[in-house]
């Protein structure tokens, strides 16, 4: 999904900075900076570097997460904390680092990637993952109130089961068929479906939209 978002933004003429632990396989990634987004020190270092270079960060897309499955009694406290560290704390650290400049310029766009799993369905053995994405949605709503008067919008995109390389490699093929059959649009969700929603919320067409969660799942969940 991240690669699709980056390519879409680059295609629209945006300058993109990609933060990750490992460099992307695809060279169409904009500028890559190695960063552990769960480390307060690492995120602050990147923010200081960009500020020193005079780089203005207008938009922030928080698209990071892990989705382990299993019975809750088999999940250790460290495992629970790791899921929240990646899925929730990274969002907090990145917004904390880049929001002050957005606020001072009275303009900014933040999009957090959540999940439709928070809103319904019977997805079993994902309790911690769903709880973490619920936290992202709650944070999105609250932060929108804090930043709206400064011209900064904060929204979330909640995809369904997206047919990424990682998901195809780690989940049974029949999952995609079963989920697609229950959607109003009966086909597998692709990364491009998600990036279209993200780029819309980053655009000037979404100036008056904030604090919202846009579910992008082919009509599986309807709010």
Commentary on this structure:
- With 223 residues, the protein is an alpha/beta fold.
- It has a single domain (57-216), classed as Rossmann fold (3-Layer(aba) Sandwich).
- 46% of the residues lie in helices and 13% in strands.
- The protein contains seven helices and six strands.
- It has a four-stranded parallel β-sheet with strand order 3-4-5-6, with helices on both faces.
- Helix 2 runs parallel beside helix 3 (77-105).
- The longest helix has 29 residues, at 77-105.
- The chain starts with a helix and ends in a 7-residue tail after the last strand.
- The mean pLDDT is 93.
Average predicted confidence as pLDDT:
93
- What is the class in the CATH system? Alpha Beta
- Number of domain modules: 1
Number of helices: 7
CA gyration radius, whole angstroms: 17 Å
Distance from first to last alpha carbon:
23 Å
DSSP strand count: 6
Instruction: Please tell me the CATH architecture by its name.
Output: 3-Layer(aba) Sandwich
- The coarse silhouette is globular
Specify the CATH homologous superfamily: NAD(P)-binding Rossmann-like Domain
Along the chain, the helix and strand elements come as HEEHEHEHEHHHE
User: Which structural class matches the secondary elements?
Assistant: alpha/beta
């Amino acid at each position: 999904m991240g690669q699709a978002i980056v390519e879409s933004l680059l295609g629209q003429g945006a300058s993109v900075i990609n933060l990750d632990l490992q460099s992307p396989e695809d060279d169409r990634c904009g500028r890559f900076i190695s960063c552990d987004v769960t480390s307060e020190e690492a995120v602050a270092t990147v923010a200081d570097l960009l500020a020193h270079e005079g780089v203005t960060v207008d938009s922030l897309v928080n698209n990071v997460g892990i989705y382990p499955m299993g019975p809750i009694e088999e999940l250790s406290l460290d495992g629970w904390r790791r899921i929240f560290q990646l899925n929730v704390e990274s969002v907090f650290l990145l917004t904390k680092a880049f929001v002050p400049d957005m606020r001072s310029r009275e303009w900014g766009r933040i999009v957090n990637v959540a999940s439709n799993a928070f809103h319904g369905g019977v997805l079993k053995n994902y309790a911690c993952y769903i709880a973490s994405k619920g936290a992202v949605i709650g944070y999105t709503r609250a932060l929108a109130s804090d930043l709206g008067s400064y011209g900064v919008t904060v929204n979330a995109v909640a995809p369904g089961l997206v047919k990424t390389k990682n998901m195809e490699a780690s989940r049974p093929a029949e999952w995609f068929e079963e989920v697609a059959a229950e959607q109003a649009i009966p086909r597998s969700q692709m990364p491009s479906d998600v990036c279209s929603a993200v780029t819309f919320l980053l655009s000037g067409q979404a100036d008056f939209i904030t604090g919202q969660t846009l579910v992008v799942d082919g009509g599986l969940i309807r709010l």
